[in-house]
Fold this sequence. Notes:
By secondary structure, the protein is α/β, with parallel strands linked by helices. Helix content is 37%, strand content 18%. It contains twelve helices and twelve strands. The protein has helices spanning 12-22, 42-55, 79-82, 104-114, 129-137, 167-171, 173-180, 191-194, 201-209, 213-233, 243-250, 297-308; strands at 2-8, 28-35, 63-65, 120-124, 145-151, 186-189, 198-199, 238-239, 255-260, 262-264, 275-277, 289-295. The protein has an eight-stranded mixed beta sheet, with helices on both faces. Helix 4 (104-114) packs across helix 5 (129-137), helix 5 (129-137) packs across helix 7 (173-180) and helix 9 (201-209) packs antiparallel against helix 10. The protein is globular and about 50 Å long. It starts with a strand and ends with a helix. It binds beta-D-ribofuranose and calcium ion. Beta-D-ribofuranose (BDR) is lined by residues 11, 13-14, 39, 78, 81, 125-126, 151, 160, 166-168, 241-242.
Amino acid sequence: ARKIIIDTDPGQDDAVAILLALASPEDMEVLGITCVAGNVPLDLTSKNARIICELAGRSDVKVFAGCDRPLGRDLVTAEHVHGKTGLDGPDLPDPVMPLQDGHAVDFIIDQLREYAPGTITLCPLGPLTNIATALQKAPDIANRIAKIVLMGGGYFEGGNITPAAEFNIYVDPQAADIVFKCGAPIVVMPLDVTHKALVTKPRNDAFRNIGTPVGNAVAEMTDFFERFDKEKYGSAGAPLHDPCVTAYLINPDLFTGRHINVEIETQSELTMGMTVADWWHVTDRPANATFMGDIDADGFFALLTDRLARL
Ligand code: BDR
Ligand code: CA
């Protein structure tokens, strides 16, 4: 199993991504979960990550708190999507397991230095502040990262927080710019993909029909989170953005995309945080990311439901 670090801002969809990882030990070993401010402030994301580990019966997982604000901008949060706690929907107990001592950024650096180069895959599911800070503090780690598989951006689909930008990239465009320029192999799950991973009624029923606390919690989380996309976009259900990252590590064939150049807009207020993806190779800028464009959504939900049933 490949070793991974999940960098996250839970968030109901982050929670499902974490559950999928913890349900899949043959595919990935979770070295730790590093939390960042994003959907809600850091105190809540680092609490929510522990709530989810305990829901999965995994109070042994190391959870770290990281950066509490973007590199150069004020924090923008998304309670309008995820609710006040960031994990609204199910009624889950407060965590008993402690946060680890030490900063998430130092954990990321130490783990990358401890294991052989090419061992650790980073899975960012929120703003890229922790990852960029680690790269700034320890530039030597860039060469040691096996791969960065992240949720963020959108191109043909447009944005979800501004017309041009997706939330994770918009919150900390400067961090995203550092990450996209770092030289490590990058796989991007943009809105173009995640807006096709919709929890329709039958898919939500399938979670509930698992009949376990995890199945029920996932059904309740996706019920809650669905409200927003349904009302606002008339979408058929909640988009499961972040689980696309962990599903990719299990079965990359569920996704198709192109290896292209992706640049981050960090200057213009109008298009701040836009992922400018050279899908048609109209420039000679070097490719720096595999930007996904499509998903086998039925295959994705079958895999997800099957794995969640193990917990
Ligand atoms: C991303 O933003 C957050 O609200 C979700 O958790 C996901 O990571 C989607 O734009
Ligand atoms: Ca997220």
